[in-house]
Design goal:
alpha/beta; 18 strands; about 325 residues; Metallo-beta-lactamase, Chain A; binds zinc ion; seven-stranded mixed sheet
Length: about 325
């Protein structure tokens, strides 16, 4: 089934109508993992039919407000909905103090009715945060104005080989042996003849990789973590007209994001974390594509399926304003 990414918010700093701060859901075999939780994330989940009660793991990149100010509302909603199952949060350590302060102020015994397990992130090297049957999730250090900030890399595990049904019938293979054959065992016929595993099974598909890098200055220190990923979401807060601002504030331009994608040999690039100062987003694409052709503009509400070969539905060719986006003074 592979990895799919639903964008809930891809704007930086201040929200605009229909352009919300950072939040997205990564689905692995339909299990949702939330990355960042900007203001308005709960409403966005309702709008785009994300089943928030199924989320058990939340990853916060850093503590600028546009990446976590929606979290307290979500944690309270879980309490109001009588959530019982554990919730894991992976984030910079000070977030735990913030959550505790919020809890102490509003809840008499300062605990949620569900177990909240906090995992402080480390931004010095690549670190394993989560390991499941199908997926490993790592944090990777980003360079963002000296604030503790990490990206996240999702790596699918190679699935077991698939049993060929025709071979089960052909050799009358007992059900009890099938699991072992999927793991690589050969099969021995009653006359002692060995049927090799390669004849009995087919290989599973190539595991997929997704990397999330928001927010970060242009830095080639990221390249080792991003090599050959299938999809890279890389911030592109600015266009080249504000390259100095990007440098000063620890952000990247669209062209810089594309350069990272090209140097890391990724398959596709999704741009996001657009500055509120831009209304038409098409120039982000125009500036990025010469450096990396497989660049796409992330759109709020869209779901990006890594397995899908044809992404023409995500292509934007004309001036692009998010629907109902109002221009600010
Ligand atoms: Zn941000
Ligand atoms: Zn930031």
């Amino acid at each position: 089934m592979g990895l799919k990414i639903t964008i809930l918010g891809n704007n930086s700093a201040r929200p605009l109508l229909q352009r919300h701060p950072a939040a997205q859901v990564v689905y692995c075999n339909d299990e949702p993992f939330l990355i960042d939780c900007g203001e308005g994330t709960q409403v966005q989940m309702l709008r785009y039919r994300v089943k928030s009660w199924r989320i058990n793991h939340i990853f916060i990149s850093h503590l600028h407000g546009d990446h976590y100010l929606g979290l307290m509302g979500l944690l309270d909603t879980y309490a109001l909905s009588d959530r019982q199952h554990p919730l894991h949060i992976y984030a910079p350590a000070p977030l735990q103090t913030i959550i505790q302060a919020h809890l102490s102020a509003v809840i008499p015994d300062a605990t949620y009715p569900y177990p909240l397990i906090f995992h402080p992130t480390d931004n010095t090297e690549k670190k394993l945060l989560y390991e499941g049957n199908h997926l490993s999730i790592y944090s990777v250090p980003l360079v963002h104005n000296k604030i503790h900030c990490t990206g996240f890399v999702f790596e699918e595990k190679k699935a077991a080989r698939k049993m060929r049904k025709d071979k089960i019938e052909e050799y009358q293979i007992p059900f009890i042996l099938i699991d072992g054959i999927k793991k690589g065992n050969h099969f021995e016929l009653p006359d002692g003849k060995i049927i090799p595993n390669e004849e009995l099974t087919t290989d599973s598909r190539i595991p997929q990789k997704y990397a999330y890098c928001s927010d970060t200055a242009y830095t080639e220190s990221l390249l080792p973590y991003l090599q050959n990923v299938d999809l890279l979401y890389h911030e592109s807060t600015y266009l080249n007209d504000k390259i100095q601002q990007a440098q000063q504030r620890g952000h990247s331009t669209a062209e810089q994001a594309a350069t990272i994608a090209q140097k890391a040999n990724v398959k596709r690039l999704l741009l996001g974390h657009y500055s509120t100062s831009y209304y038409d987003l098409l120039p982000f694409l125009t500036e990025a594509r010469p450096a990396f052709a497989q660049t796409y503009l992330s759109q709020e509400g869209a779901t990006y399926d890594i397995s899908q070969a044809d992404w023409s539905e995500h292509e934007i060719k004309t001036e692009y304003f998010q629907p109902q986006c109002s221009k600010q003074d």
